[in-house]
Amino acid sequence: MPPAPSTSESFERAALEAGATLVTPSLPGAIACRLSSAGIPAFADRLAELGAHCQFLAATDTRSDYGDFTLVYVFAPARLRPAVVVRVSVPASTASFPSLATRSFAASRFEREIHDLLGLVPLGHPDLRRLALHQFWPADYHPLRRDVTARTDFVDAGEAFPFRRVEGEGIYEITVGPVHAGIIEPGHFRFSVEGETIVNLETRLGFVHKGTEKLFETLPFERTPALAERVSGDTAVGHALAYCQALEALTGCAVPARGAWLRVVLLELERLYNHVGDVGMIINDTGFAFGHAHCFRLREELLRLNARLTTHRLLRGAVVPGGVAEAVGAPALKDVAKTVERLVTEFVEIVGVCLANTTVLERLQGTGRLTTPIARGMQVVGLVGRASGIDADARRDAPFAAYAELEVRAPVYAEGDVWARTMVRLDEAREATRLIRAAADRDPAGPTRVPLPAMTAGAQGFGLVEAWRGPVWHWVLADGPASLRRVKIVDPSFRNWPALEYAVLKNIVPDFPLCNKSFNLSYSGNDL
Amino acid sequence: MIAAIAVAVAQVIVVGAGAPLLVGVLRTLKARLVGRRGPSPWQPYADLRKLLAKEVVVSTTTSWIFRATPYVLAATMLVASLIVPVFLARPPLAFPGDVILLMYLFLLGTFFLALAGLDAGSAFGGMGSSREVAVAALAEPTIIVAVFALAMRAETIDLARVVERFSREPLLAANPAHLLAFAAFFIVMLAETGRLPVDNPATHLELTMIHEAMVLEYSGRYLALVEWASAMKLCLFMTLLANLFFPWGAGGLTGPAAIPLGVLVLAGKLVLLVIALAVLETTVAKLRLFRVPELLAGSFALAILSVMAVVLV
Known about the structure:
The structure holds 2 protein chains of 2 kinds. Chain A is α+β, with helices and mostly antiparallel strands. Chain A has 3 domains: 8-123, Beta Polymerase, domain 2; 171-204, no CATH class; 257-451 and 489-519, Cytochrome-c3 Hydrogenase, chain B, CATH 1.10.645.10. Chain A has helices spanning 8-17, 40-49, 63-66, 105-118, 212-218, 224-229, 236-251, 257-285, 289-310, 333-355, 358-364, 372-377, 382-387, 394-397, 418-442, 492-503, 512-519; strands spanning 21-23, 30-36, 53-62, 68-76, 83-91, 96-98, 121-123, 171-176, 188-194, 197-204, 319-320, 323-324, 460-466, 471-480, 483-490. Chain A has a 5-stranded mixed sheet with strand order 1-2-5-4-3. Chain A has a 3-stranded antiparallel sheet with strand order 8-9-10. Chain A has a 3-stranded antiparallel sheet with strand order 13-14-15. In chain A, strand 14 and strand 15 form a beta hairpin. Chain A starts with 7 loop residues before the first helix and ends in a 9-residue tail after the last helix. By secondary structure, chain B is mainly α. Chain B has one domain. Chain B has helices spanning 2-33, 43-53, 64-83, 98-119, 123-154, 159-168, 176-192, 211-214, 220-245, 258-283, 292-312. In chain B, helix 2 (43-53) runs antiparallel to helix 9 and helix 5 (123-154) packs parallel to helix 11 (292-312). The longest helix of chain B has 32 residues, at 2-33. The A-B interface holds A 173-176, 180-182, 196, 285-290, 292-294, 297, 357, 359-360, 362-363, 508-513 and B 30, 33-36, 123-124, 127, 196-197, 200, 202-208, 216, 282-291.
């Protein structure tokens, strides 16, 4: 049987067959509907036949308005278009909904998070261990409910997390972290090894859970873009842009052409400095100091270029609701493009030298292999997905900013190893250079921003951005003209962390840092 | 008698005081080779002084072995510096068969360090110890066989006499056995002193470490002693390499100027070796851990071939 077409029409038909009522979409290019919670599993099965899976799930406490909780699902293929947004009401009396955990890996993680933070029970979920909160948090304390008051009266009495235990002759555990020797974020890695071979890895994150999503609800509105930039320090533009796009979708604000093109330049500059630094770190983990020294020299030059363009080395403060800050773009974009071209030419040359060294290549090839079937099964996204044969890039498939006018070429490798993830970065650095040049050639005149209209309570909007790691989602629900009811953020790290546990299987312990570096996932973006 | 004591003291001082400089020069060179400015060659002395002034933190689960190991390490290296022909062919403790004592002095330090790695009970120490012992077990026969190839050529098992013979009759070294033994010994030196491509001395990644994983628990003056001892080990291995395989200038010196002249000659040879090591470490990546035995097996094969070359050629 040929695969059923995944088109907006087929999704719409499936929604109507499932008994849903269509509503105005909050995600550009998607259809939206309301459905009863009991109908969700059957609808998910029908959409799976059409090639769409759960890509996003947010829950929010709307008891004060409607006397229930609201779930917002997004079902879409890996390419995220076409998509269907499903709104589901969960009665406050039962506070439970049917789980999709056995149908979608991504859904199983979203549901665990909802179980922790809002206390809604996904019925039939096979693994309801804590995900976002740690063991010592009180069982009845769900910080994202709107009627809770912040509590600080509980202490860590050493309650253990129920890790999967691997037993057998000669198998022992190595526990690493949460505090590491290098200057990286905190995360706990529990290896079960046989000799040097990894037979199981379980990661435990959440050590930098800082209530970011909750903070959006109370912070003065004009300071929220700055908070979005700080979700993950290395994805300032990615998160700020997704947040601003969500606000713009919510208010129906159209960004002027110059703002949209500058957003492309900013996002690609962020991609560049991260990719160049990452490749340097990957090469460094093979013990080849040459690549590290030169990649970090280039990264520094890129950061200085960022500072010249936006006054901030990590591009903070550049993306604002309604466009891009006026100060951005004072240096001519042609000069920016020229500098980028010079630096990336050097970068390509340096990577060429490193990969021509067989001792380096030998460490990268075949290490940390994430096969395409496993990557598809775990719904891996972004850069890691493209290195494992998943051809998806929101810049091309679900264009935003000015990407619709550019033909973004997404590199895809089937190998799924550290080498493939390095090559995707190299190719994307080249592509970023081309996109920046295209933006500089266009260089449209006019204002960079327009004022954001006032929001209406109950309005909601999505922002979806292909940041350097992969798709960043922001979903915003307004509470008033300048106040927010709920902001749900999904960093690609949240989606990809579990895949690392599979990629390292059958590798040896000393190769773990290399695998980890090639994923380079954010802890902060995961622990919201 | 007084002269002998003077030589003994001078040997210990040259090795003990010079070793950190050797490490510092190596680091500076490596930094320059990748285009960084790098720290000054004198930095290891500043590091040692800082560590000596710092508080010692010792895990409550450790035994006396953990506290004794730094002293054992430093002591074995200082004694070893009396056996290795540093700048005179005849070191103070020379006797027939001293090469065997020398190898086992090195191994004694390794043995204690491996125990100390296990002592604190952390996962990393145990990992480092198991890896170090695996490497040492593979490296040890190579050293003995490679040195014996030279000893057979020189027809003596006394290190000093080997050096003397080769410096008197340089043509004796013009032999494939010499070259093969040099290659074998060089590879083993990389493994024994934790250099690339076997171990990465600059890494901060606990999971990849060999030598550094064992010393993770050390701090303060203990760490200073451990660092100093590993610098001395590198210095002794390179000195041995320099004087066994390029003995010219190490044997024939006599008179009051012998010591300073000998030190100068040694320094020249070490500089060349350090440059070679820095270039090598810059051009290779670290081997995957399971490739290390292959490398060491290769070096053992070279050592065996070297002995065969002595017998056959």
